[in-house]
Design brief:
Layout (H helix, E strand, L loop, with lengths): L4 E4 L5 H12 L3 E3 L11 H10 L6 E4 L14 H29 L2 E6 L12 H21 L4 E8 L5 H6 L2 H9 L9 H12 L10 E4 L7
Parallel strand pairs: 1-2, 1-3, 3-4, 4-5, 5-6
Length: about 220
């Protein structure tokens, strides 16, 4: 692949770290700002980061996101606004602004990290599911608007991944039950998510755009 530059958000977590490493293994330069450099909850921070960005971005991976778990009567409108800002509005702004240079170069790859919870749900996931469904809608719209510039836009929707996050939000009993309900009988490894993202970001992907690609071991089939 000709030397490309990628911006990947949210690399402090397991999936983000694996995506960064996988792209670097393909000789792609990766810009991975810390929260102090790019705070997705702050429109001012996003605008400052983009203004000071000196590199032309060929690949954008919107991986950063927040999860708020709670039933509807435990959540507030402020919770909803916060999750929409980080999970939906920030990716929208980054895609809108960074696609300008992609248009000039007639090349771009954008991958939004979505979730199976954009397609199905469970108790306590209302606003998170809504935010990821919105991301998938953005993916489809941007794919249509940018297709003539050779910019491909896709969502990757992981199921349960072997990270600290699922251990934080599920008891061991729940984890055992979930694993029994995954046809492949295990959680995904972060490298498996990263491999799919890297393919979608590469020139090997020349015809997939506007898709939400689920990678869940068959979980939502049951």
């Amino acid at each position: 692949m000709e030397k490309k530059t990628a911006l990947v958000t949210g690399v402090s977590g397991g999936i983000g770290k694996s995506i960064k490493q996988s792209l670097m293994n393909e000789q792609i330069e990766v810009i991975s700002p810390s929260r102090s450099e790019l705070d997705l909850s702050s429109s001012e921070s996003i605008n400052n980061f983009l203004t000071n960005l000196s590199k032309s971005i060929d690949i954008l991976v919107n991986n950063a996101g927040i999860l708020k778990v709670g039933k509807h009567n435990d959540l507030s409108s402020s919770d909803f606004q916060e999750i929409l800002q980080v999970n939906v509005i920030a990716p929208f702004v980054l895609m809108s602004k960074l696609s300008d240079s992609m248009k000039e170069n007639k090349f771009g790859r954008i991958v939004n990290i979505s979730s199976i919870w954009s397609q199905v749900s469970r108790e306590g996931r209302s606003i998170y599911s809504a935010s990821k469904a919105a991301v998938d809608s953005l993916t489809r719209s941007f794919a249509l608007e940018l297709s003539s510039y050779n910019i491909l836009v896709n969502s990757v929707a992981p199921g349960y991944v072997n990270t600290e996050l699922i251990k934080k939000n599920n008891s061991q009993t729940e984890l055992d039950y979930i694993k029994k309900n995954i046809p492949l009988g295990r959680f995904a490894e972060t490298s498996e998510i990263a491999n799919l993202v890297t393919f979608l970001c590469s020139e090997k992907n020349s015809y997939i755009t506007g898709r939400v690609i689920t990678i869940d071991g068959g979980y939502i089939l049951k």
